[in-house]
Predict the 3D structure of the following.
Amino acid sequence: SSELTQDPAVSVALGQTVRITCQGDSLRSYYASWYQQKPGQAPVLVIYGKNNRPSGIPDRFSGSSSGNTASLTITGAQAEDEADYYCNSRDSSGNPLVFGGGTKLTVL
Amino acid sequence: QVQLQESGPGLVKPSETLSLTCTVSGGSISSYYWSWIRQPPGKGLEWIGYIYYSGSTNYNPSLKSRVTISVDTSKNQFSLKLSSVTAADTAVYYCARGRVTVDYYYMDVWGKGTTVTVSS
């Protein structure tokens, strides 16, 4: 079935590195895109494709993929990175497009 | 830069049809995929469907029987209709611009979202 699995919550100390993961069969065929959502705001694209950042996204955000797992890495997390993060992928098994359940990132 | 703005009723009665429009400004609706996504209170994002500017569509199978997405290129707008709504359809509804390649899809411009409540 079409499904992307994320850890519900992750925490990181200020200035440290954190990896947020997304697992699913579709990731063996397709790259994930990653979205940051702060409370009361619309999602913002932070990573897409193999490892592409839209204009304006800091270079501390990076993406990678291996097997059925996609990862979003924040190197040197800042207080403003505290948010919910969602992965999203194409899928060929039935649902053309699917979101992960989201990961709440806390910066300590 | 391109901006998206959702519009439509904030309150819909159960069993009726939810109708929303997304207006694209600052750019053309051509050559992109246009999605609707929703987020129930306190929950995650759910993709509803998308339409290519030419009119071809693709929907979430779980909603397909109730969803229609259409596009009006002359007005630079696309629209969502969701029929037979229940309280479970209460959510913030977002429209977004999407791009598709062979091995990925991403949505790079989003509207601010509009809250729709289903209640009598």
About this structure: Chain A has no helices and ten strands. Chain A has a mean pLDDT of 95. The two ends of chain A are 36 Å apart (CA to CA).
